[in-house]
Amino acid sequence: MTTTWTAAFRSAVLSPAESFSFKEPRGFAGQTLRQILHLDGGGEALRVLLTNRFGDRPLVVAAARVALRKSGGEILPGTDAPLTFGGAAEVTLAPGAEVASDAVPQAVSAGTDLAVSLYLPEETGPATYSHTPLETGYVAEGDAVSASSLPAAEEVDSRFFITGVDVLAPEGTAVAVAFGDSWFEGAGTTHGANLRFPNLLNARLERGWVVNQGLGGNRLLTDEVGLHGLARFDRDVLSVPGATHVLLHFGLNDIGLGSANGDRPPSADDLTAGFAELARRARDAGLTVIGGTMGPYLGTIYPGVDTPEGQVVRRAVNDWIRTSGVFDAVVDYAHAVADPGQPDAIRPDLDSGDHLHPNDAGAQAMADAVDLAFLRL
Question: Where are the transmembrane segments (predicted)?
């Protein structure tokens, strides 16, 4: 059986210098960073992808190891192995650089929790990061990459310096990329429970899998939290090894954050042109493109996000997504979670509480709304 490197986990990252990011920049020095990665797919070997994409200085990783996670920050005894880079135990990433580790001959399966430990001996400066991974990371003093547990570690709720894991999987394994905003990243679902929409969709699939490139706060047309969707499409979708399909959910932040910031929100024509451009680029790359309607958010607790004008644009764009024929298929996320008596609002039992993001049951409703025939994985 021929195997090839295939994406089994992805994490969209932000620049710490962006003034609009949700969290204060964070750096490390003389510390070990242990982070948990929940695999969407499996294979007979793995490699870990590290990044210094937005760093302002070289990033020195003096030691790195990967293991199966037992619980919390504890690893399963006998499963840890060193990560090497071109045969070396240490690697330095220049600002903007990224690197894949050498292959680790460890078979893993979908649903596995990996613990990746990095020893960072020098000042990293503000770290390239994912702001809402919904998974706890652990920071310990000194070189603790081989420690089975980190009882005195600081807990953090962002992910740093990691963009993914690839596995050696059978050639032809199909991978869908969930490319969008917080509705894909998982905001509103239970921390540490792996109940994001892509996780729950994976539970329905008999073969192939979905990797998550959602980024909370991300816009389709304008840089806000991270590069906008059109700008990051090549990096976060087309460069994903094994990608065959892309699922889309964008537009809420273009409308809502634009209003909240006092900017002119995009028109329906602006957004539909952006979606059409994404669809064209996906098809040109040979991907099946699955559009998604923007979820409801009437009465959201976030000031300035819900406006009558914005709701008009959302309805118009959703109608276009459903009927334009631009996409190979469409998932009606809005219908899946809407309150039937008030369709611009999330159904109360599917609402996380902020009237903008679905809860665990809402994420399940989104996953259940996907016709698996669309994916053909």
Answer: none
Same domain, 150 and 211: no
Proportion of the chain above pLDDT 90, given as a percent: 93
Query: What is the identity of the amino acid at 300?
Result: T
DSSP 218-278: --SSS-BSBS-HHHHHIIIIITSTTEEEEEEE--HHHHHHHHHTT--PPPHHHHHHHHHHH
What's the whole-number mean pLDDT along residues 284-299? 98
Q: What's the rounded mean pLDDT across residues 161-178?
A: 97
Q: Are residues 293 and 314 in the same domain?
A: yes
**Do 160 and 210 share a domain, yes or no?**
no
- Do 96 and 226 fall into the same domain? no
End-to-end CA distance of the chain: 18
Among residues 216, 202, 188, which one has the least CA distance to residue 350?
Answer: 188
DSSP result, 176-201: EEEEESHHHHTTTSPTTS--SHHHHH
Residue 84 burial (10 A CB sphere; 0-12, 13-18, 19+):
middle
Domain of residue 119: give its range: 3-165
Task: Give the pLDDT band of residue 122 (cuts 50, 70, 90).
Answer: very high
Amino acid sitting at position 97: A
For residues 202 and 177, what is the distance between their CA atoms, to the nearest angstrom? 11
Residue from 372, 292, 45, 4 nearest 173 by CA: 4
Q: Is 266 exposed, middle or buried (0-12, 13-18, 19+ CB in 10 A)?
A: buried
Q: Please list the helix, strand and coil fractions of the chain in percent, rounded to the nearest 5, in that order.
A: 20, 30, 45
CA atoms of 330 and 7, how far apart (whole Å): 24
| Separation between Cα atoms, residue 157 and residue 275, nearest integer Å | 32
- So what's the pLDDT on residue 21? 52
Structural domain count, the chain: 2
Is the pLDDT assigned to residue 43 strictly greater than 50?
A: yes
Per-residue model confidence (pLDDT) at position 19: 47
pTM (predicted TM-score): 0.96
Q: Supply the CATH number for residue 206's domain.
A: 3.40.50.1110
